[in-house]
Amino acid sequence: MYRRSLRDLQTDYLDYYLLHAVGGDKGIETFNERFIDCGVLDFLLREREAGRIRNLGWSFHGDQKVFDHLLAMHDSGEARWDFVQIQMNYVDWKHASDRNVNAEYLYGELEKRGIPAVIMEPLLGGRLSRLNDHLVERLKERRPTESTASWAFRYAGSWPGVLTVLSGMTYMEHLQDNIRTYSPLEPCTGEELALLEDTAQLMLKYPTVPCTECQYCMPCPYGLDIPAIFAHYNRCVNEGNVPKDRQDPGYREARRAFLIGYDRSVPKLRQASHCIGCNQCVSHCPQSIKIPQQLRRIDRFVEQLKQGTL
Ligand code: SF4
Ligand code: SF4
């Protein structure tokens, strides 16, 4: 594969060569199988020595033990890495999902050793370019002419140990927006980093429900108005009427708007608290929404608002 790449690329050396998806599958076992036992890593190290690979690194996906293991190889001189590719954005910095490791740790370990980081998923699979209206508004207040995506790109580019940020660009506008953001890059200030951390927390705490109000799940045998509940909740998330906790400056106002609006949009007997979890609605939903779980989540939120325990 390596030799074929050289042929296909019509070159006799490569600037950057990566061991792909280190940390996936069965962790260390898979890493050893793919790169150590068969001699692939030894071969690539020799190729680098010969100058045919200018920079040798790996992309990381998954098991932290493997990440630490490869850095220990670097520390001992067994294999010196020229760069490492990690998933990093303002959500994954402190709130990586179960399958991933917080970028704060990954980046920190690389920075300690002076290993440049290549960033993948700066937009978290596109989610950071599609924030809800209220979160977009907060960002626009600070930088009115800039796109939502540009905040995520600036965030990724703000760290001094970052070598480059990879992004998928589908349209010419994406490319133009990226070029604008990085020419020149204006690193995020401490205050902006705090705003993005707050954005991440709100985004994770109140994900909208991808309900299109198609009504296919209706009627519910227990009388719930499923689409109306989701529509009210989504509207409040989009308008910012979902306080993070009781310390939130807009808490009282948001609480009132949510609870009064809820009673107006959905009669009491049709609200989420009446769902018995029979699951009859689930198979009808073309969006594969786990309806009873989502209703429980919304109901918990409503109860916390009512009891003042948020
Ligand atoms: S799971 Fe809840 S919402 Fe769905 S049909 Fe049963 S009672 Fe109705
Ligand atoms: S079937 Fe799914 S998408 Fe359609 S209204 Fe019900 S929950 Fe919403």
From TrEMBL:
4Fe-4S ferredoxin-type domain residues are 265-294
One Pfam match: Fer4_9
Q: SUPFAM superfamilies, alphabetically?
A: alpha-helical ferredoxin, NAD(P)-linked oxidoreductase
Q: State the Gene Ontology terms under molecular function.
A: iron-sulfur cluster binding; metal ion binding
In Swiss-Prot or TrEMBL terms, this protein is called: Predicted oxidoreductases of the aldo/keto reductase family
Keywords linked to the UniProt accession: Iron, Iron-sulfur, Metal-binding
InterPro entries xrefs: 4Fe4S_Fe-S-bd, 4Fe4S_Fe_S_CS, AKR2_Oxidoreductase, NAD(P)_OxRdtase_dom_sf, NADP_OxRdtase_dom
Q: Look up and give the organism this protein is from.
A: Alistipes shahii WAL 8301
